[in-house]
Each structure stands twice: as structure tokens, then as C-alpha cells.
Amino acid sequence: MSDQMLIETYKDDLQKYSPEQLRYKAEQRVWSIGQMYDHLILVALEYLDNVETCKAADVKQPLGKTEAGEELFSLGGFPPVKIKLPDHLDLPSNSESKEELTVGLDQLQQKMMEWEDKVDTVNPDYKVVHNGFGWLNAREWFDLIGMHFRHHLRQKDELEQRLGL
């Protein structure tokens, strides 16, 4: 499934949630579905900002990925494990409406379409550091968006099960 189709699937699924279901938290430390969507959108937009930064760079970066980054890209995605974010990153908004999240996904798709044909024109030696995965180039940042959305499919299924969907 392409990244665009994956995001379309998230958009379609978003429409089936009531406002109460979107914000429902089974436990204090468990995100709501709305928080997961907010997280996905914000992280993807940040990754696209890093694609832009790579394009604007004018100095080659000789450093590469960390061991975790090498593993992630060799697997083509995240391993099927839950990842605990640092506390300061673990607070996505739980107040976004279905409409606001849909607009966010639409904007993300538009930006991704703008980059799809030109991401490979960015010098692969121009990189931006990721705290966990090391120095990534524009193509790697772009590909990370789809990997991240696929990773959260398991969480989405789990949250939907808690809602009885």
C-alpha cells in the first residue's frame, strides 16, 4: 500500500469515530485515537520540515545512521514493539475535532504529493540528524513518514478494540 493510500485509510477510518470515541482514554497513560492521529500528523509534518532542511543544506554530512537507524531502514519499518516516548513528547492534543484532524491529514497529503517527484533530486549527502536514528537524508526522512504511519496501525487496532469497534 502506498503512503498516500495508507493516509487515505486513516482518513476513512477517522470518519467512523464519534467525538466521544475520538477522545476516549482507557487509562491515564494510554492515548486516545484522537491523540494518536494528532501525533501522526505533527510528526509527519516535522519530517517534511527536515526534508526541506536537507534541500536547503549546502554542506555534505559524512556521518550516517545509528545502529537503530540502520536496522529500521534495513527492515523497511519499525519492529512490532511499543515505543515509549520521552515525557515531553508524550502529550499529543486530545482536543482536535474530526474535522481538524481531517484537514491536517489533507495538508500532509498535499505536502507529500509536492515532494514525491522531487525528493530524489535532493543531494543524498545533505542530512539532518534524528535523535534515535542518526543522520538521515531527504529520501530517508520522507520514507520515515510511511514507516511511522504503518507502525501506528497496531496501536490504532488496539485502541479500536478498546472501543468495541
UniProtKB/TrEMBL annotation:
InterPro entries referenced in this protein's UniProt entry, alphabetically: DinB-like, DinB/YfiT-like
Recorded superkingdom: Bacteria
Residue intervals of the DinB-like domain: 14-155
Name used for this protein in its record: DinB family protein
Lineage: Bacteria, Bacillati, Bacillota, Bacilli, Bacillales
